[in-house]
Specification:
Mean pLDDT: 91
Shape: globular
Structural class: alpha/beta
Oligomer: single chain
Distance between the termini: 46 Å
Strand order of the largest sheet: 2-3-4-5-6-7-9-10
Number of strands: 10
Pfam families: Spherulin4
Protein name: Spherulation-specific family 4 protein
Radius of gyration: 17 Å
Organism: Streptomyces huasconensis
Order of helices and strands: EEHEHEHEHEEHEEHEH
Strand content: 15-25%
Helix content: 25-40%
Length: 249
């Protein structure tokens, strides 16, 4: 485990320019408002994950194609969701899903969800990423560890998700010292259960820890609440106005 410290970045990190990485809403027929909101001008989006059915699904979905097309026409990266199952998913299955995403939805890259974080798994992840980059020109690869991985992963992915979890953990989280060797554009934090009154605090944590991609939501996980990422936070306009150019009613 790398040594952790809360204040590695120092005061300069408060100037980190924040943008959103959206981990994936529910199907566009279930969450049409959410998908429509993402295409509104002025929203500081870095990328949006398209997760049709824990992957690309068995056949092309016209509703997902339309939603992805609107975002890509707006200049937003759309990433395909690939579940690595912490390294248990066969290489061939991942590549097959990647081809479907490219053929059906013209994605700009991929998010490798449940990506392993240990040193031993790095060669296989590197092999997968190298193959994915060969499929897409200028592919954007996000490694969804959800925790600080072995430092070598920073040389493999374009972005690393170094935190994914509840606000109760995030507000006391620490950052690995090795992350200070890389720019904030390389790191992403995904936090659920963030109360509206703590948005400023959550943004300060992201800046102090040197992560320029975030997604905060007041939705919660567990106890029958479903996936906290499937719907938009109740304070979406509020957080957009704090992070970007603002959303007008």
């Amino acid at each position: 485990m790398p040594h952790l410290t809360r204040t590695t970045r120092g005061a300069a990190s408060t100037e980190v320019r924040i943008g959103f990485g959206v981990p994936g809403f529910a199907h566009p027929l279930v969450a049409p408002v959410e998908w429509a909101e993402l295409a509104r001008p002025g929203t500081p989006l870095k990328w949006v994950v398209l997760n049709v059915a824990n992957g690309p699904g068995e056949r092309p979905d016209p509703h997902c194609l339309e939603a992805a097309g609107r975002l890509r026409n707006a200049g937003v990266r759309v990433l395909g969701h690939l579940d690595t199952m912490y390294g248990a998913r066969p290489f061939g299955e991942l590549v097959s899903d990647a081809h479907r995403y490219l053929d059906w939805y013209l994605v700009d890259g991929f998010r490798l969800d449940r990506c392993p974080s240990g040193r031993a798994a790095l060669p296989e992840v590197r092999r997968t990423v190298t193959t994915l980059r060969a499929l897409v020109d200028d592919a954007h690869i996000v490694l969804g560890h959800g925790t600080h991985p072995y430092p070598g992963y920073a040389e493999t992915g374009d972005e690393l998700v170094t935190f994914a979890g509840p606000w109760s953990d995030y507000r006391w989280s620490q950052v690995a010292e090795w992350t200070a060797d890389h720019p904030p554009e390389r790191f992403c934090h995904l936090v659920h259960g963030v109360p509206r009154g703590h948005l400023d605090e959550a943004l300060r944590i992201a800046r102090w820890q040197g992560a320029s991609t975030i997604y905060f939501t007041d939705r919660v996980d567990g106890a029958g609440a479903g996936d906290p990422w499937e719907s938009m936070p109740g304070y979406w306009d509020d957080i957009v106005s704090r992070v970007g150019t603002g959303v007008s009613e």
